[in-house]
Design a protein that fits this description.
- Helix content is about 25%, strand content about 35%.
- It contains six helices and 13 strands.
- The strands form three sheets. It has a nine-stranded antiparallel beta sheet with strand order 3-4-5-6-2-7-12-9-8, covered by helices on one side.
- A hairpin with a 5-residue loop joins strand 10 (about 210) and strand 11 (about 220).
- Helix 1 crosses helix 2 (about 105-125) and helix 2 (about 105-125) packs antiparallel against helix 5.
- The radius of gyration is 20 Å and the shape is globular.
- Mean pLDDT is about 90; it is low at about 60-75.
Length: about 280
């Protein structure tokens, strides 16, 4: 996907990660939308996720291919399993999503939770196939009072763009500036998955009160610079928890390489970058 070297192990004392999310989609299993169907899954996950709520959901699957078929709209019940640190596992009739915010402890811990949840689903729901695997990491950097232009210093010029180049006069205020890039990379022997990798990357400035999709959605409380990286592969493959974890870790590696590349030396200092042996 990216012509970037792996960044190596590092930590950020003031990491700007707002939310990490991984999702698998699979053929619809109706009983996962019932209390009877979700009960054995809840019981096996209850030590880690002791609370459960049910909510109605509406999912819109965009049209695929050149035929112009209308989008597919589905509804049903989804169950949210949570803990005291706002880790969330959302299970619907055709998908399972893990998300975490401030409690994120690193990719190894997050991938381990993913594998454990998928293993329970594979055994209890007998899911035969995974149709889509996606990973999304959202960075939200609030601009502190008196330093509203920090984003110009902390991220590379390739990301901040012409709006940070000095072309605007002193009386012009930048209200918002969000860019989106979509990418497609063919399947490669170096990737554990069987399909091409696709990506939707957003980066730029959003004002206070902006809503950002997520699980749950996020609303900015200040003028913020965001980087949203959504990498995914869509293909039918066996619902193998170990293999899907490996693919997620490779998607994360691409995301991590891009984020590490995005930081300037001033950004490294601001976020408290430290290499880990």
């Amino acid at each position: 996907m990216f012509r970037l070297d792996p960044p190596g192990r590092y930590r950020l004392a003031r990491a700007p990660l707002a939310q990490a999310l991984v999702q698998v989609r699979f053929p619809m299993i109706a009983r996962l939308q019932t209390a009877e169907g979700i009960a054995p899954i809840q019981e096996r996950l209850r030590d880690r996720y002791p609370y459960m709520t049910a909510r109605n959901e509406i999912a819109v699957q965009p049209p695929t291919g050149p035929g112009g078929q209308p989008p597919v709209i589905t509804g049903g019940v989804a169950y949210e399993l949570t803990d005291d640190d706002d880790r969330i596992v959302t299970i619907g009739g055709g998908s399972a999503t893990l998300s975490v915010g401030a409690a994120y402890e690193g990719v190894e811990e997050f991938a381990g939770r993913m594998e454990a949840v998928l293993a329970v689903l594979a055994e209890e729901a007998r899911i035969p196939r995974c149709d889509r695997l996606g990973a999304r990491y959202l960075t939200v950097v609030e601009q502190p009072p008196g330093h509203e232009a920090g984003w110009k210093e902390w991220f590379r010029r390739e990301l901040t763009g012409w709006a940070a180049s000095g072309v605007l006069d002193d009386e012009t205020r930048l209200e918002a500036g969000l860019n989106q890039v979509s990418l497609r990379s063919p399947a490669a022997s170096s990737f554990a998955g069987p399909a091409e990798i696709r990506a939707n990357i957003q980066h730029g400035l959003v004002p206070s009160g902006s809503g950002i999709p997520g699980n749950p959605p996020i609303t900015t409380s200040a003028w913020s610079y965001i980087i949203s990286m959504d990498l995914f592969c869509e293909t039918a493959q066996p619902f193998d928890p170990v293999g899907l974890r490996s693919q997620f870790e490779e998607l994360h590696s691409e995301i991590d390489s891009f984020f590490r590349w995005s930081l300037t030396p001033a950004g490294e200092k601001h976020f408290g970058y430290e290499a880990v042996p």
